[in-house]
């Protein structure tokens, strides 16, 4: 391609100077005149090249479709992708005198605050996305393909969903041989065990919660009745993005920290079994019963949110919701009026 010729010439120029043969003024003028001639001959092609450099790699851009509404997923309190008011076909085409107009759930969208912006090229961008910003957005585009042609009009529809990450945590149960259920030692042991477990995962920015503690009489085969403590704990991750020193490293991801916490907890109970196996003295009155530790991975959405991989195949694990409560097809059917709980599934049934 002709566009690559000047690049090769510049590289050859650097090599010439490195060899110690300075260019004469005539040679420089000859080189520049040849370069200008080539640019003039292919100016229609070269003018378009710089436009691609405006695209930023760190921003996601979503184009519309004239055939169906495009779904956009925005995490709560985060910056949204750039929602473009063009189709894929028009994205890289020249548009003469384009004009863009956005309408949302509350009417015409104007860049009047720091949370909603419309760029000079008609892209819709949200900062610190809130649940109330969810809903149906339409963009009207008017443009001319060429100066001689008439104005063309295009209407694009987007469904923008607010979502948040599911509440991930581990729930685990363990059983301990215990003194009589009314013993005060059981209460003090419960507090001590919770304290030890909490300290175990403290450096991972995780917390342990005691969900349930019960004492039962258990009939053992050939051993009669014995007392056992049944504990149910949860281990969840704390928000590392807040505070004076937010953590942004990939090791700070919630799932990674929870996996490490799980390993530490399993090691803690295994060490108790090993310590009892090496013990020469009689067993203590309260001790961990080998093999009773059970850990389960819990993946739940917060109230008002839900998952629907059938309706959202591109975001199956998103806990999402839409604040619009009316059917956008014009029937005005309300989720609440039909007795549904207003959640993600209800919102989708109204929209689609």
Radius of gyration: 33 Å
Give the CATH topology of one domain. Alpha-Beta Plaits
Strand residue content: 25-35%
Q: Count every helix, treating DSSP H or I runs of 4 or more residues as helices.
A: 7
Distance between the termini: 49 Å
What's the helix-strand series? HHHEEEHEEEEEEEHEEHEEEH
Give the strand tally.
15
**What would CATH call the architecture of one domain?**
2-Layer Sandwich
Weakly predicted, low-confidence segments: 1-58, 322-352
Helicity, as a percent range: 25-40%
Q: What is the highest CATH level, the class of one domain?
A: Alpha Beta
CA-based shape: rod-shaped
pLDDT averaged residue by residue? 74
User: How can the largest sheet be summarized?
Assistant: 6 strands, mixed
SSE class: alpha+beta
Family: Belongs to the zona pellucida-binding protein Sp38 family.
InterPro entries: Ig-like_dom (IPR007110), Ig-like_dom_sf (IPR036179), Ig-like_fold (IPR013783), Sp38-bd (IPR010857), ZPBP1/2_C (IPR048805), ZPBP1/2_N (IPR048806)
GO cellular component, one term: acrosomal vesicle
Keywords: Cytoplasmic vesicle, Glycoprotein, Secreted
